[in-house]
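Quick one: co-fold with nicotinamide-adenine-dinucleotide.
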Amino acid sequence: MELNNTSAVVTGGASGLGEATARELSARGVKVVVADLNDELGSKVAAEIGGAYAHCDVTNTEQVIAAIEAAVAMAPLWSAVNCAGIGWATRTVGKDGEYSSAHDLDLYRKVIEINLVGTFNVCRLAATAMGKNTPDVDNMRGALVNTASVAAEDGQIGQVAYSSSKGGVVGLTLPLARDLAVVGVRANCILPGLIDTPIYGTGPQSDEFKARLGAGVLFPKRLGYSSEFATLAVELLSNSYMNAESIRLDAGIRMQPK
Ligand SMILES: NC(=O)c1ccc[n+]([C@@H]2O[C@H](COP(=O)([O-])OP(=O)(O)OC[C@H]3O[C@@H](n4cnc5c(N)ncnc54)[C@H](O)[C@@H]3O)[C@@H](O)[C@H]2O)c1
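Sure, here it is.
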């Protein structure tokens, strides 16, 4: 699938995996809308890659449509990459065993709302916009890449909310691809392992933490680079025969209970 002279929406594009993907797409001749909540970082990334920034909460339909329309205004929208997401860690039952200290249900809902509902929101609206594209030789009109996590398969203690949300993202991949085949849009999913992004903080303490995490990786024994995620995301977008697939990008790690 040709990416040059098309546009893309990258949610979470202000930081980490989304930022790296926005940069990689731009290097491939794509006009990118960085769709994020972080106006300062998002505008900076967008300016550096000659794209546009859209303040966009992925759970807000109006804001998602505005981000998509900003992309369409630059060039036909052929790609959307969902990297917006939040983490959360809380055990299901509190230490004192009281009802009141059980996992906060609103926090559970919030993680599902952003990571799962938000991802689907962008998919359904981006694919709708892509449906208006003039199809290529394969009758194709675009492609989506979603970001789950290895926590979808090996969620750790305290990760019920996060793993539920990411399991949902993996689960929707096949039916989404099946729904969208008629529109000419492919859908794939990446399950990153431990990738070095601002999600782990910055500074000496976080460097120590990341070094400990890296020691648990099978091979190579280090955290992944966000560029390694970005090149895979771009391959999933540009390779016309990739569809309905969920791929672990994790150097062989299998997360332990804690
Ligand atoms: N870094 C890792 O090791 C790792 C591993 C597995 C999965 N992931 C997933 O990859 C994705 C990106 O993570 P990252 O490491 O780049 O984190 P990050 O914190 O660097 O970037 C996430 C971005 O998403 C944005 N965001 C948060 N909520 C949003 C919302 N409601 N609407 C729009 N934007 C929103 C943030 O502002 C931020 O810029 C997340 O979904 C995360 O769960 C990351």
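If it helps, Strands lie at 7-11, 31-36, 52-55, 77-82, 142-147, 185-192, 246-249.
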